Amino acid sequence: MFKKVNEISDILNGLTNEINKNPIYIAGINEIYQFDFQDIEEVFNMQLKNRTAKISHGENKESDCTLILTTDYFIQLLQGDLSGVTAVMSGKIKVKGNIGKVIKMEKILRSYNYLDH
Fold it and tell me: How many Cα atoms sit within 13 Å of 42 on the Cβ side?
């Protein structure tokens, strides 16, 4: 489990760095996305505000949307192998909060093609 925690942490930190290098896709967005990874029992948050992305570890009560998923599904989502809407409809991803924010988040994540690098 420790290896997966480090792997997902590295992915989220790398993605955050990529977003901050070119924040064009997050212009005008002020939201906190929470990722509750069930398989590693860890929670991470990505705050998008003022054209800046920040990642933090742990629960954030102010999150606009929480995605409850596994690390494998998150990676598939990043790679474009899993549609966020399909994953929610099939139960692979559960959402607390506004489902519309999942669609927005997926579009942002895909815009960076981070795992294709």
Answer: 16
